Amino acid sequence: MAEGVDIALVTMDEFGVGYATAETSGHVPEVQTEVLDPTGAGDAQTAAVQFGLLNGIPLDESVRLGISAAALTLRTPGSVVPNLSLEMLYDELR
Question: What angle do CA 18, 23, 24 make, to 5 degrees?
Answer without folding.
Answer: 30
